[in-house]
Amino acid sequence: MGMAVNSDAMKSRTKLLALVVIRFCRALPQNPETRVMSCQLLRSATSVAANYRAVCRAGSSADFTTKAGLALEEAGETLFWLELLVDAGIVRRQQADTRLDETNQLVSIFVASLRTAKGLRSAIQNLKSAIVLPPL
Q: With left for phi above 0 and alpha for psi between -120 and 50, is residue 71 left, alpha or beta?
C-alpha cells in the first residue's frame, strides 16, 4: 500500500494545486462573502506549495515534521474552504471535485510522510536509549 512520491513530483503537484486554485478563484462571483472565502482559499492553497518547499529544505527530522505539519494544516484548510464554497451554494460540487480530490490526496501523502518520519524518529530514540556504553 506504499505510495512512494519523490520531492520533485510533490513540488510540481503542490504548485499545480496553487495555480489551479488561483484560476478557480478568478472565476468566482465578486461579492463580499465570496471574496473573503476566495482570499482564504488562495492563501491556504498557495501556502501548501510554499510550505512543501520548506519541507524539502528541512535540516533535521524535527524540522521536517514541523514543516510537513504546516503543509498538512494548510492542505486541510484548503479542503475546508473548497467544501464551504460548495456547501454555501457558490459553486457546484462538480466544479470543485478535481480540486477536492487532489487536495485530499495531498493530505493523505502528508499524513503518511509524517507518520513515517515520527516512526523513524521514535525508532532512533529507542535505539539510543537501548545503547549502553561501558564505563571508562
A: alpha
